Amino acid sequence: MRPKISVQRDIRNLILNVFGFLLLWEWLRPLKTVTDTQETTGFVIFICVSFLLLFLRVPFLVGAMIKLFLILYMIHSLYFKVPFLELSWLSTFLADIVKNIGLMFQANWMGMTPIFRTLLFFILLWLLSYLLHYWFTQQKRILLFFVLTITYITVIDTFSPYDAKAAIIRTVLIGFFMLGILQFERIKEREFSKHIHIGKKWALPLVVFILFSTLIGYVSPKAAPQWPDPVPFLKGYGQENANGSISGIKKIGYGTNDQHLGGPFIPDDTVVFTAKTERRHYWRVESKDTYTGKGWVLSGKAENETFHTENTVLNWYEQKTELEEFETEIQMDLKYPHVVYPMGLTSVESDPDIHFSVNPLSEKISTYRGDEGVKLDGYTLQYQYPKYYINLLKEVTEPGSLEQNDIFKKRYTQLPEGLPERVKELAVDITITKTNRYDKVKAVENYFQANGFVYDTENAAIPEANQDYVDQFLFETKAGYCDNYSTSMVVLLRSLDIPARWVKGYTEGERLDLSTYEITNNNAHSWVEVYFPEFGWVPFEPTKGYSNSNLFSYDLGTPGNQNNQTPQTVTEDVPEVEEAEETLATPASEENEGGIADDISYAFSWKYLMIVALSLLLIVYVLIKTRMNWMTYLYILLYKNKKDEDVYFKAYNALLKQLDRVGFKRKEGQTLREYSIQVDKFYRGHDMEQLTLSYERALYRKDNASEEWNKSIELWENLIKKVSS
Q1: What is the rounded distance in angstroms from the CA atom of residue 710 to the CA atom of residue 343?
Q2: For residues 473 and 480, is the Cβ–Cβ distance under 8 A?
Q3: Rounded distance between C-alpha atoms, residue 238 and residue 257, angstroms
């Protein structure tokens, strides 16, 4: 059997007990977040006392009495109002224990009282503190518990609101220090030595390397996740998907239920349809008009209207909008019982027995064969593509005639009664200097391109019961995706009495060739349409990283452009058809709309600078700590092959410096020969004395120094290596 090193009340043991307490404390920290436990101070005090008693090696019975007293006091302070010394509460407590023991024999775990569960938890902490103390003082092992702690914290961080960033850093530091100390203790056992102590020559490098590696890990850029986040799978369980069925996974894509917006989703590159079209544009499915504070619903149920080929129900444009006719062919991969269509749809061509049912509120076009809904493989669309003149849109300063209609006004300027006032105040602040509707709308649209907003599909928050979805995004998180941006823009515009509505569908998709686009679930999107008198509904794109696919330009002709000449135009913020398409599933703009570069690269540059600085500091530290080794070979490289008259003197002085660094400091007034005898006595040889005699001949007798050096090179090299080893 290997000899056991007895547990001592020394600094090393104190450090291990402190670290063990801190490691166990990390298991208690998340309880306030993930359970209904609101008071953990008593548990923390209990494990602290348990480790202290174990460190002081208090006899078992005495320690047990102290812990039992502490448990009773903690339970009394949590559950009983009478004074502690008034023993009436004790009889109630004992009766509760007897009752719960009976419930245990009946396997009625849910019926156990909070008092008994608290008692069991104290007993569990008692056992854990003893086991941890035994593991790291007797077995010199902590790796298993360290790994379990990291696993526990990361799981809690992933599946609960608990933020474990600081906890992970603390645990890694504590665990690495304990692993280092216990490794040293195991080395002591293998060497059967009780006289080796943790000194600064061992402890300082341990501290430096642990702190350095932890800091490097903290400030280094993090790679993107290699697997999809499991949280959206669980959060999306039971949500309604596109065809109205219940899906176990929440992925990006078209869905029918918009009552509760928010929360993360995972990408999905499943192809929905392909389109042959000459123009890039968004694909509509439906719109919603009533904002509830959590999401979108329709304001009522309207009687559907039917058409067979020509669209006689929906109209988006008024007389001042310039239009151009186009055609597109749709081939569906995922089949839905509705049509995806561009704004300005004039007709749909499909099988002769197909007719189309339109909800005039949502503008959703469903497909029917007889009385049954049908999913089409493909169809051809005729539509009108609009061209908007900015200078004409800026002429809109007053409400139009349609806005005098109470039903229209109420529907498209509706806001929930509980909308926070600061949302309305923000809308006024954004547009306070604007005098026309277009400039106000653009000011709101551009507001999201700066002011700290980021596009994020993974960390999009879900509002609490008392939170407004838009208010949370505008003032708290500022992180989200298209639903956050589009809903917020609609609400801000409605706060200014500007009619606006929320539209959902798909972006233009990815271009496969000159006129073919592929639209996937990743292209599912929502945007904003704003009403302009005499123009109709005009689309806008507030989501950061996306661009409006419609054509906006300035009319540089005569005011009003009443003649028949083709007007000259200068486009504004309009991507050309020939430009390469962006991948809209994960948008990221390199510049914001004002031409000001984002601060992302600047922020990362500080990380890189810190990494470089820390790396240089570590290199310098390693070079200083290992200078005895590398300087030896540097001296050999410098002097061994040289033949000049001065090389001997330089090489000998280098040897003296190395001896001084290892602790053989030459005393004042001590001759070289006396010093050499002292060195040889320690190294048990005569090499230093022989080398010194040769050196003195070269120095004092004026003999040929290079000749003496040639005779002594090997002796000098062996000696300097021995000194530096």
Answers
A1: 94
A2: yes
A3: 12
The pLDDT of residue 250: 53
The tally of CA atoms less than 13 A away on the side-chain side of residue 630 is: 7
| Strands 454-455 and 479-480, bridge-based pairing | parallel
Integer Cα distance of 234 and 225 in angstroms: 17
- DSSP category for residue 277: -
- The residues, any chain, with a CB within 8 Å of residue 86's CB and separated by 6 or more, are none
| Euclidean distance between CA atoms 414 and 412, whole angstroms | 6
Residue 38 tokens, joined: 């609101």
* Cα separation, 598 vs 600, whole angstroms: 6
For residues 666, 669, 672 and 676, what is the CA-based torsion angle, rounded to 10 degrees? -50
If we measure between CA atoms, which residue out of 650, 622, 632 comes closest to residue 723? Answer: 632
pLDDT at 113: 83
> End-to-end distance of the chain based on CA atoms, in angstroms?
34
Q: What angle (nearest 5°) sits at the alpha carbon of residue 204, between those of residues 202 and 206?
A: 75
Degrees, nearest 5: CA angle 420-426-430: 160
Distance (Å) of CA 581 to CA 57, 151, 365, 556, 587: 72, 42, 28, 29, 11
DSSP 241-265: -TTS-EESS-BSS--S--SS--S--
Neighbouring-strand partners of residue 298: none
Rounded to the nearest 10 degrees, what angle do helices 88-105 and 60-79 cross at?
A: 100
310: pLDDT strictly greater than 70: yes
Distance between CA atoms of residues 303 and 584, nearest Å: 36
State how far the alpha carbon of 512 is from the alpha carbons of 275, 277, 284, 508, in Å: 10, 11, 21, 12
Cβ distance 548 to 539 under 8 Å?
yes
pLDDT grade, residue 236 (50/70/90)? very low
Q: 378-389 and 551-555 as β-strands: parallel, antiparallel, unpaired?
A: parallel
Q: Which helix (H) or strand (E) holds 274?
A: strand 271-276
At 525 the three-state DSSP class reads: strand
Structural contact between residues 248 and 265, judged by C-beta atoms closer than 8 angstroms: no
304-324 per-residue burial string, b: 16 or more CB within 10 A, e: under 16 = beebeeebebbebbeebbbee
Q: How confident is the model at residue 422 (pLDDT cuts 50, 70, 90)?
A: very high
CB 329 within 8 A of CB 377: no
Q: Which long-range contacts (CB under 8 A, 24 or more apart) does 182-187 make?
A: 182/16, 182/136, 182/140, 182/141, 182/142, 185/5, 185/12, 185/140, 186/140
H or E, element range at 408: helix 406-412
pTM equals 0.49
CA distance 500 to 490: 6
Work out the number of other CB atoms within 10 angstroms of the CB of residue 290: 18
**pLDDT, position 555:** 64
Average pLDDT, the chain: 79
Q: Which residues pair with 287 in a beta bridge?
A: 503
Q: How does pLDDT run across 336-389, given as a tens digit for each residue?
A: 899 999 999 999 999 889 999 999 888 999 999 888 889 999 999 999 999 888
pLDDT in tens, 454-509: 998 888 888 888 889 999 999 998 999 999 999 999 999 999 999 999 999 999 99
CA distances from 476 to 177, 279, 471 (A): 38, 38, 8
Please report, for residues 341, 344, 532, the alpha-carbon distance to residue 278 in angstroms, rounded to integers and kept in the order given: 14, 15, 27
DSSP letter at 663 equals T
Contact 588, 545 (CB under 8 A): yes
Query: Buried b / exposed e across 272-289, counting CB within 10 Å, b at 16+?
Result: bbbbbbebbbbbbbbbbb
Q: Which pLDDT does position 564 carry in this prediction?
A: 41
- Residue 710 CB contacts under 8 Å (≥ 6 apart), including other chains: 643
